[in-house]
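Readers of this paper often ask what the protein records in our data store actually look like. An entry from our holdings is shown next, in its original layout:
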Amino acid sequence: MLNFSREKYLNVTGGAVAQRGEIEKIVDQVTEKGFKNIFLIGSGGAVATFYPFEFMINATSTIPAYAEIAAEFVLQGHKQFTEESLVILSSLSGTTQETVAAAKYCKERGATTIGITGEYNQPLAEIVDFPIVNFAENDFASDSNQLILYFLTFKLMNKNGDFPQFEAFASQLEELPEKLIEAKEQFEAKAEAFAVAYKNEPYHMVVGSGNTWGRAYSYAMCVLEEMQWIKTKSIHAAEFFHGTLELVEEDTSVLLLKGEDQTRPLMDRVEAFAEKYTKKLTVMDTKDYVLEGISEEFRKYLSPIITSTLLQRLSVHLEDKRDHSLEIRRYYRTVAY
């Protein structure tokens, strides 16, 4: 595969899997202390990675969950947030200023805090009660963070009596990195073909729903806009027919991120419409990937990580065919703002 290191990927994802024991200890401690709700707080791609877990917790558990943008959360005065809240924050660098400020805000108010990051000795890891640290860079950070969040949030639900299948699920998560590489390999030719066909495309619509909505939001903003400078709109499938459909023409690029959760009919509806009105429809469907050894009952939970691991391949080929590095920035962490 183009610009892919199997060894590096397995080191990063293996490092996330290796956190399982420590994560379960943390869950035991926070559960013993008690909490009444969960806040998932981050900025940009980090909060987008939380959106699927907010969806899955609220669809699976009686624990109220709120995914919040760090900077807004600090200003809002959220009335569900109290000293009895459990707060999970994420920042790969551990230095994202809005997320660090949110961590301080939560600690000052007595909430229990967990921080997911790629660096020790950085502000987020220093502030929170329980740092979970696994080194990763932008290319594979999403898969690392999601693996950690699967162990963390599903164990929290398990301790709450909502997800008795945790042991079987966690065991299969430990085998997932190899399965994700197989999915990448299966997708490789399609990723390259997309990049060839759309390397000069000026505008994309990226559509998701349920637990793929966060992936649609982050891929539009953090990759196509930030890393490739392509105008892009992320659209929730449930809202597609409340405005955005009017911009679809026969040469409009529409990228659908179809998962396997209970909102799949929303994506089917958008797909049926797009098939009629644009010649530039691309469908990425997690059902197309076997993931041998993963139980059917767990597949719906894995749609976000399958989608993100495939999108990583799309990004690499867009970078190559567009001759536009994924690392170059005009403004982000480059100028004062």
Summary: The domain at 175-322 is CATH 3.40.50.10490 (Rossmann fold).
